[in-house]
UniProtKB/TrEMBL annotation:
E.C. code: 4.1.1.28
Natural source organism: Macrostomum lignano
Signal sequence, start to end: none
Matching InterPro entries: Aromatic_deC (IPR010977), PyrdxlP-dep_de-COase (IPR002129), PyrdxlP-dep_Trfase (IPR015424), PyrdxlP-dep_Trfase_major (IPR015421), PyrdxlP-dep_Trfase_small (IPR015422), Pyridoxal-P_BS (IPR021115)
Protein's name in the database: Aromatic-L-amino-acid decarboxylase
């Protein structure tokens, strides 16, 4: 059903007409959006080089051409740019221009100044870190967000910005098979919010758990000073958790213990149980456990069922960081690793990593959003409004301002459909398995973590030195880009091969494998 038809059905059109001067002609609607120098009068008064709507149409087409040409050119470009630190400053003037320049001059600088110096994260030979997502529908969604350019800090600051986000968060939660308590539509206290990054999501959770714990302690010990109470709090995570968890703890001033994992690099219930008992015996107050699904180093999975059961029993907040792996929950056959997720109090994943939505877009779901919302509310008169019933998202995040990021989720989910997104994840998983099989076919190599998703952790058998030398050779070679890591517990050093690019095909897997074999053979000589 079209939006217009829906408005009519909901009998909202008259409201819309009254409030927003609805006019059915497309150009009139556009004039509501683009108000810079579109009429003869305003153009005559404006800076002659300022871009008007007509020029924007033309430049927009040029920019789209440039983007498509760039995206189509990866195979002709190096994956890591051939530049040295400081390459850029001499290429542009030391001061901003006094007078505006023509857009042609700006376009002419894009290749030598910018594209020559970017690491091509979407190059089919890029296998480092974890993927960062991109797709044309997401770029189009961001374009519209930039054009609307609203700051959706409250419902009234831009109702569509808030309401589309609540619906998109429910769409995501349902598509991933998350428990109902994370859905707005379940009618409980739960719901989702788009944060910029998983790091911000962890920080929000830390601050929420910290303040909740201090409020409870103060209720029991009214004489207790918040600073003194704060010093007693303790949180837990695995030794393999992302560094952002440790940073969030530092920012929240909460002590954190990194607990030992089992032989599969998974944090288990026994380790948490023991740590809680030790800390309670010392007079500390355990408040939070951050479990990881898909660790950054090796894509290991903490045992959420065991950890969640202990958290629920002991009164700890259980947060699940699934920054990369979360997108795989789109595929029902890949959901085993999230067993026990219904026990979690919050869950976070980054559609901007593996779900074809451009950075930044990190989805945080909360069982009880009031734990964050009520604690962080600061309501000056100029931000107050009379409407209730929808979230004022400024209370769900650290900054006040927020972009209209749900547009890109909406565009991506509609253009690809859940089945298109599933096919994308499945293809990457199958390419990773292909790489694993190729690596294991050579007896000199071993794979050091079970390959569940798109990451293969491999090394030359024996001491770390051989794999370190292999890594140096691959870095010098530069035809493929990957990074190394080490397990905390064993000190075993390995290389991480991640399927990242939407353009990555079987031929690129075979190419990467041949480059690695060449490097290994060179070292053997
Ligand atoms: N958590 C995990 C498990 C990650 O793998 C990463 C990054 O790769 C992060 C957190 C940090 O993500 P962000 O850059 O969104 O803060």
């Amino acid at each position: 059903m079209s939006i217009k038809a829906r408005l009519e059905r909901e009998n909202l059109r008259s409201v819309y007409k009254k409030r927003f001067f609805y006019n059915s002609s497309a150009s009139a609607k556009l004039k509501l959006l683009f108000f810079a120098g579109d009429t003869k009068e305003t153009k005559a008064q404006s800076n002659p080089i300022e871009m008007d709507g007509e020029e924007f149409r033309q430049r927009g087409r040029q920019m789209v051409d440039l983007i498509v040409d760039y995206v189509n050119s990866f195979r002709d470009r190096p994956v890591v740019p051939n530049v040295q630190p400081g390459y850029l400053r001499p290429l542009i003037p030391p001061e901003a221009p006094q007078e505006g320049e023509s857009f042609d001059k700006i376009l002419a600088d894009i290749e030598p100044v910018v594209l020559a110096g970017v690491t091509n994260w979407h190059h089919p030979n890029f296998h480092a870190y974890y993927p960062t997502a991109s797709s044309y529908p997401a770029i189009l969604g961001d374009m519209l967000s930039d054009a609307i350019a609203c700051i959706g800090f409250s419902w009234i600051a831009s109702p569509a910005c808030t309401e589309l986000e609540t619906v998109m968060m429910d769409w995501l939660a349902k598509a991933l098979g998350l428990p109902d308590h994370f859905l707005f539509s379940s009618g409980g206290r739960g719901g989702g919010v788009i944060q910029g990054t998983a790091s911000e999501a962890s920080l929000m959770v830390f601050l929420g758990a910290r303040n909740d714990a201090i409020a409870k302690l103060q209720a029991a010990e009214p004489q207790g000073e918040p600073c003194e109470l704060l010093a007693r709090l303790v949180a837990y995570t695995s030794e393999e958790a992302h560094s952002s968890v440790e940073r969030a703890a530092k920012l929240a001033f909460v002590r954190i213990r990194s607990l030992k994992t089992d032989e599969k690099h998974s944090l288990r219930g026994d380790a948490l149980k023991q740590a809680i008992a030790e800390d309670r015996a010392k007079g500390l107050v355990p408040i939070l456990c951050i479990a990881t699904l898909g660790t950054t180093s090796s894509c290991a999975f903490d045992n959420v069922r065991e950890l969640g059961q202990i958290c629920n029993r002991e009164g700890l907040w259980c947060h699940v960081d699934a920054a990369y792996a979360g997108s795989a929950l789109l595929c029902p056959e890949l959901r085993n690793f999230a067993d026990g997720i219904e026990l979690a109090d919050s869950f976070n994943f980054n559609p901007h990593k593996w779900m074809l939505v451009t950075f930044d877009c990190s989805a945080l779901f909360l069982r009880d959003a009031s734990k964050i919302v009520e604690i962080f509310s600061a309501d000056p008169i100029y931000l107050k409004h009379e409407f209730t019933g929808q979230p004022d998202y400024r209370h769900w995040q650290i900054p006040l301002g927020r972009r209209f990021r749900s547009l890109k989720i909406w565009f991506v989910m509609r253009c690809f459909g859940i089945s298109g997104l599933q096919a994308y994840i499945r293809k990457h998983v199958s390419l990773a398995k292909e790489f694993e099989a190729l690596i294991l076919a050579d007896g000199r190599f071993e794979v050091v973590e079970e390959v569940t998703l798109g990451l293969v952790c491999f090394r030359l058998k024996g001491t770390n030195e051989a794999t370190e030398a292999l890594y140096r050779t691959l870095r010098e070679d530069q035809r493929i880009h990957l990074v190394a890591s080490k397990f905390h517990s064993s000190g075993v050093y390995f290389l991480r091969f991640v399927v990242c690019s939407s353009q990555c095909e079987s031929k690129d897997i075979r190419f990467a494998h041949s480059v690695i074999m060449e490097a290994a053979n060179k070292l053997a000589k």
